[in-house]
Amino acid sequence: MSGFVHLVGAGPGDPGLLTVAGRRALERAEVVVYDRLGTEELMPLCPPDAVLLNAGKSPGRQAMTQDEINAALVEHGAAGRRVVRLKGGDPFVFGRGGEEAEALRAAGVEYAVVPGITSAIAAPAYAGIPVTHRGVATSFTVVTGHEDPTKESEQTDWDALARVPGTLVILMGMGRLAAISAALIAGGRPPGQPAAAVQWGTTPRQRRVVATLGDLPARVREEGLGSPAVVVVGPVAGLAEGIDWIERRPLRGRTVVVTRARAQASELSDRLRALGAAVVELPAIRISPLPGTPELDDALTRLDGYGLIVLTSVNGVDALFAALAARGRDARALPAAATVVAIGPATAERLAAHGVRADLVPERFVAEGILESLAQTPLDGVPVLVARARGSRPELVDGLRARCAHVDEVELYEAVPEPADPDAVAAALAASHLTFTASSTVRSFMGLLGPGERAALRGGPRVVSIGPVTSDTARAEGLEVHAEAAEHTIPGLVAALLADVAAAAPAP
Ligand code: SAH
Predict the structure, then answer these.
(1) Omega of the bond leading into 217 within 30 degrees of 0 (cis)
(2) Tell me: the pLDDT tens digits for 438-488?
(3) How many angstroms does the Cα of residue 69 sit away from the middle of ligand 1?
């Protein structure tokens, strides 16, 4: 079988700026040759068994040379593998993608190019700077600042660039910014012309300095900006204040820790990122289905005898349907006459995805709320199935029994602690907010910390909890809870976090 190499542009850093074609290639890759800059967050898209080769510098190892990279692409391609060469921004914009394509062609290895969003356009855009603007700039020129403007051998004609009327976008120019600024002014660009530098554009670390061509080098030094950055010279840089949208986002400058299980983190993480936060995913737990027990077998066999079926979480729904599927059954096993109760809208949604409409979705998710919502439902002598996690609190089942229901409680899954990545733990301690969506995540998170780290939490990140049960657990674990969701859902949690930020001091 012949291999295939995709030369893929990863975009400038925001993982949302990868193209659909790039994503498909990554999802099918067997070998990925990547550069650190701008590509790291995309690595989880690769299949778990894909071989990842870092072509850039890594601790204790030199960067691969271009020849070595070309050779690796040819070798894996010729060996019949699906290879992705992943590069920041666009592969053909100062990415040496052209050389790689030539090497593959010469070796007879099939390849395709997947363009990416270049930092030359995206970093300015995320800083509120359109590279062209009606009546302001009708062209833009992208140039490397890597070459030394004071050397005779210089290929870049800064004099000519100074005379081109449109926007000038300079990549790799931070090291020589003062010389570039002087060369452009000497060539005729007015020193008072607006100019900007955008470092780590499109990422949560993005920083921007807007100044004039003359004073940009000094301002960049004052503000401590460095590589990687895009420099924009031209009147469009003066539009930044008016167009900027990044700095206006409410969680800009905040770092929020998401402790949910990895498989469930993305909804919360995505919402937080969209609001401008940097997100640290520190999955404290993993959902692990429990092996079948005679009680479970018995309950599933007698499913059509239940008058009321209570599902307490999305995981519970998944586990129930997995258990049914393992027995060759599906949604039709649920008795049509039974009242199905879903705790929380997300649980109801997941049920609907399995083809079952919940009859009742209690407004309050704590046991008392659920029991209240069942006030009109006859329970006396009614067979009830409660499907839930191991270690769940007894209140709900006790309450149902108090109303003379015949309750079978089956444990379908448990939340087990996930081993922590030390870097993520350190990032979590330095974060502005910790979020907890369940008691199990609180306990497991605290279990990851040593005594010193627990002490570091005092006066550290602010704690936001999804509801009173989780808050109680957090307090029992010695945490102060700063905000609690009024509606015990992910959107409710985000709303509580936003309110906490709005009420507290402005971003650092
Ligand atoms: N192929 C890439 C450019 C590679 S050259 C692209 O199309 O974007 C590397 C230079 O790109 C850096 O020195 C910097 O000038 C710029 N760059 C890359 N990512 C950036 C980012 N997120 N923010 C600002 N500049 C970036």
Answers:
(1) no
(2) 998 999 899 988 888 888 888 899 999 999 999 999 999 999 999 999 998
(3) 19
pLDDT tens-digit readout, 233-291: 999 999 999 999 988 899 998 999 999 888 888 889 999 999 999 999 988 888 888 88
Active site residue 172: yes
pLDDT digits (tens, 9 = 90+) for 44-65: 899 989 999 999 877 777 889 9
Q: Does residue 508 lie within any of the structural domains?
A: no
Is 264 in contact with 490 (CB distance < 8 Å)? Answer: no
Its domain, for residue 153, covers 121-248
Write the DSSP assignment of 113-145 as a string of letters.
EE----HHHHHHHHTT--SSBTTTBS-EEEEE-
Together in a domain, 324 and 260: no
Q: How far is the CA of 138 from the centre of ligand 1 (A)?
A: 23
Tokens of 382: 């009614």
The answer to whether residue 77 is domain-embedded is yes
Can you give the CATH number for the domain in which 16 is found?
3.40.1010.10
Q: Is 87 a residue of the active site?
A: no
Mean pLDDT of 3-28: 96
Q: Are residues 21 and 135 in the same domain?
A: no
pLDDT grade for 152, boundaries at 50, 70 and 90: low
pLDDT score for 154: 67
Ligand 1 pocket: which of 171, 176, 207 to mutate (most atoms <8 Å of CB)? 171
Give me the sign of the Cα torsion angle 112, 116, 120, 121.
positive
State pTM to two decimals. Answer: 0.78
Give the C-alpha separation, 502 to 495, whole Å: 10
How far is 501 from 249, CA to CA, in rounded Å? 12
**Residue in 43, 148, 157, 172 annotated catalytic:** 172
- CATH number of residue 448's parent domain: 3.40.50.10090
